[in-house]
Amino acid sequence: MRKRSALALLGFLALLASALAARAVAETAGSAEEMKQALADYGCIACHGEAEVRIGPPFDAIARRYSAATDEQIYVLTRKVLRGGAGNWGIVPMNAQPDLPSAEAARLVTWIIGQGAAGTR
Ligand code: HEC
After folding, report:
1. CATH class entry, domain 2-118
2. Structure pTM?
3. Domain map of the chain by residue range?
4. Dist. CA 91–CA 98, nearest whole Å
5. Which residues of 3-17 are buried (b: 16+ CB within 10 A; e: fewer)?
6. Number of H helices and number of E strands within the chain?
7. CA dihedral sign of residues 74, 115, 111, 90
8. Which atom of ligand 1 lies at the shortest distance from residue 46's CA?
9. What is the DSSP string of 94-118?
10. Best substitution site from 36, 39, 47 to test ligand 1's pocket, by max atoms within 8 Å of Cβ?
11. Residues 70-96: pLDDT tens digits?
12. pLDDT digits over 38-82, tens only?
């Protein structure tokens, strides 16, 4: 039991570290074109439009909701993109993305919600 929670904590810290590292990267790198290409390459845009509702909420609505996101919220969102989940926007679940590297997930999430703060949409 104790070993399991220690492992869970280690997993959390590793993911948090990659989220923070990715956040630093996202702030300095990744043009809009590059990030949009990544969202296309990873299949996100099958369910997410920039401004129109598809299967999931549009990225501009996500950006508005999380414009003041803390690092912890970014971690939670990153984990949700990786593992899937539902309940924040409706009953339709987002599927898990098991092949997406966690640092990449954090970079995408950070960029998506940064679009609201930057006011570029
Ligand atoms: C199969 C459809 C589908 C795909 C593919 C998909 N999403 Fe989603 N996504 C959803 C749905 C549906 C929701 C709303 C879930 C909810 O209500 O909590 C969502 C929610 C989100 C949220 C907000 C989560 C929250 O709790 O507010 C983010 C951020 C997000 N997606 C990012 C991504 C990224 C990045 C990718 C690509 C790696 C991706 N999504 C791929 C369907 C999808």
Report:
1. mainly alpha
2. 0.82
3. 2-118
4. 21
5. eeeeeeeeeeeebbe
6. 5, 0
7. positive
8. 5
9. BPP-TTS-HHHHHHHHHHHHHHHHH
10. 47
11. 999 999 999 999 999 999 999 999 999
12. 999 999 999 999 999 999 999 999 999 999 999 999 999 999 999
pLDDT, tens only, 1-22: 566 666 666 666 666 666 666 6
Task: State whether the beta carbon of 69 lies less than 6 angstroms from ligand 1.
Answer: no
Residue 36 one-letter amino acid: K
* Predicted pLDDT at 14: 67
Q: Which two tokens stand for residue 21?
A: 């590292």
> Which among 70, 68, 73, 78 has a CA at the least distance from the CA of 15?
78
